[in-house]
Write a sequence for this structure.
């Protein structure tokens, strides 16, 4: 549901009440620890490690109040990285991990706690193959776009032009256990709808119906079983698309496979990108439905993919800016000689493949928007389960413990300088 597709009925519960535990977006503190390709991150690490002069190393590192070369911090959960202070030893390059940067940009991150101002360790503890994250996106007046997106990758929570929202894991513990839902919510919905309401089914409903409001992100809850089924089916496709097929849904009605457009509508490279250097500009030809990247050309690209906005920006233009070296939304150009300025000398083939996949995801998503708008209107006109009913049933207010991370008492993590902490 986009910001322009109508507001839910009065009294719709807030997303923060339905999924009470959340974390703030990651705060990197230095842009060079994230990038579109892992080879560049390894090259940046090597330059830092090879800097023998302490002043040079500090300039490259870019210290902040939260992190300096002398900061003593433990490992990120699930990461086997050195914990010695960077002023003494850098150690081997940590293996870059795939993360979601903003709403639709899959990038890479150096998962070293010594490098990141606020890495949100509580999210890393529950990030596994069973986890799904719901990310709130900031609203920009007059600009359409989803209020939330889902990710199978650990998200950084960035909303390019809007105010960042929160990151809400579906499960509070590793292994897909203890859903991050208001206690009693699923049982109430199951009684009212005469349906089984599994955690991912409720997440699908949230993905299809969440909307911006002056009170934050809100979610209308229908009391109509047929509308519920319709919304869950649409939301399941959104989860499938926003996870690039990692989420397959349950049962025979799941999407299955990776997102692909039908034959004849699939985007292809019609003219190869330049072999040297990076393209300077991205343009769209609506007549030919083609993307132009200097001499490179990709078609067909439906107008719905080109016009798709999220987090207040055009997704394809923002994705390109992150790779071409142009100043992306909310960021300043990298300073010459900095680690952030170290980028690929030529356009990697992997980026072209990723661009084709992104065009596919956005094109398929845009095709669902009329159905999402129809669903929003039908839900608003039909019977609703409002916040008042949730309070009467004891679902709201949510217990304070549900809004805090679950304790993980059997999880050993290396603390500063090689010490172990039991969490």
């Amino acid at each position: 549901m986009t910001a322009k597709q109508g507001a839910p009925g009065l009294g719709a519960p807030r997303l923060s009440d339905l999924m009470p535990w959340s974390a703030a977006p990651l705060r990197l503190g230095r842009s060079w620890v994230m990038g579109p390709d892992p080879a560049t991150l390894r090259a940046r690490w090597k330059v830092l490690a090879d800097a023998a002069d302490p002043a040079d190393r500090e300039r490259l590192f870019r210290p902040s109040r939260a992190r300096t070369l002398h900061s003593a911090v433990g490992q990120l959960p699930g990461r086997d990285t050195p914990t010695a202070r960077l002023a003494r030893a850098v150690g081997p390059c940590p293996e870059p991990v795939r993360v979601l940067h903003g709403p639709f940009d899959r990038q890479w991150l150096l998962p070293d706690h010594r490098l990141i101002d606020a890495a949100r360790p509580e999210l890393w503890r529950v990030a596994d193959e069973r986890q799904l994250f719901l990310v709130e996106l900031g609203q920009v007046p007059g600009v359409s776009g989803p209020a939330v997106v889902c990710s199978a990758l650990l998200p950084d929570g960035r909303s390019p032009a809007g105010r960042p929202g929160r990151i809400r894991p579906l499960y509070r513990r590793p292994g897909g256990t203890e859903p991050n839902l208001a206690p009693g919510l699923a049982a109430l919905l199951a009684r009212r709808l005469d349906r089984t309401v599994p955690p991912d089914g409720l997440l699908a409903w949230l993905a299809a119906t969440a909307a911006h409001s002056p009170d934050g992100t809100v979610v209308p809850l229908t009391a109509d079983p047929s509308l519920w089924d319709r919304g869950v089916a649409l939301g399941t496709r959104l989860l499938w698309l926003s996870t690039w097929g990692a989420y397959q849904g349950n049962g025979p009605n799941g999407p299955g496979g990776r997102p692909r457009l039908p034959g004849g509508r699939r985007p292809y490279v019609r003219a190869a990108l330049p072999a040297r250097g990076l393209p300077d500009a991205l343009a769209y030809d609506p007549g030919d439905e083609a993307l132009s990247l200097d001499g490179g050309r990709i078609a067909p690209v439906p107008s719905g993919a080109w016009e798709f906005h999220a987090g207040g920006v055009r997704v394809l233009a923002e994705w390109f800016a992150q790779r071409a070296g142009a100043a992306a939304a909310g960021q300043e150009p990298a300073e010459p000689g900095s680690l952030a300025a170290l980028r690929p000398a030529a356009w990697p083939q992997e980026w072209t493949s990723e661009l084709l996949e992104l065009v596919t995801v956005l094109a398929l998503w845009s095709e669902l928007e009329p159905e999402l708008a129809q669903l929003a209107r039908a839900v608003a006109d039909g019977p609703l389960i409002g916040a008042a009913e949730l309070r009467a049933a004891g679902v709201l207010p949510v217990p304070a413990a549900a809004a805090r991370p679950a304790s993980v008492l059997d999880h050993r993590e290396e603390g500063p300088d090689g010490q172990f902490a039991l969490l």
Observations:
- Residues 1-9 have pLDDT under 50 and may be disordered.
- The radius of gyration is 22 Å.
